[in-house]
Specification:
This protein is α+β, with helices and mostly antiparallel strands and 85 residues long. The chain has 2 helices and 2 strands. The chain has a domain of 42 residues. A two-stranded antiparallel ribbon has the order 1-2.
């Protein structure tokens, strides 16, 4: 049989593994992605360059950092502050 020190070591190891196995906070906001078929899609009476410039400005106004902007597309990221635990 194993002594009390082995049992304590086993209990501590299980507690450490259980502590590392918690789920991360809801990452819905972290993984926002908008495509042409999404709810946020709008048809506008403008050239692609005009529409992309308007989208770029709107994204900047919402706190997004533009990673790539072209005449026919805009890509942006938004970094969220982690919540205090």
């Amino acid at each position: 049989m194993h002594g009390p020190s082995f049992r304590m070591l086993l209990i501590l190891a299980c507690a450490a593994v259980a502590g590392c196995g918690h789920r991360a906070a809801d990452s819905t906001l972290v993984r926002e992605s908008f495509d042409s078929g999404d709810t946020y899609t709008r048809d506008v009476d403008a050239t692609p360059a005009q529409a992309c410039e308007a989208a770029r400005r709107a994204l900047l106004g919402q706190g997004y950092a533009i990673t790539r902007a072209g005449a026919d597309s805009v890509e942006a990221n938004k970094n969220f502050q982690p919540e205090e635990e």
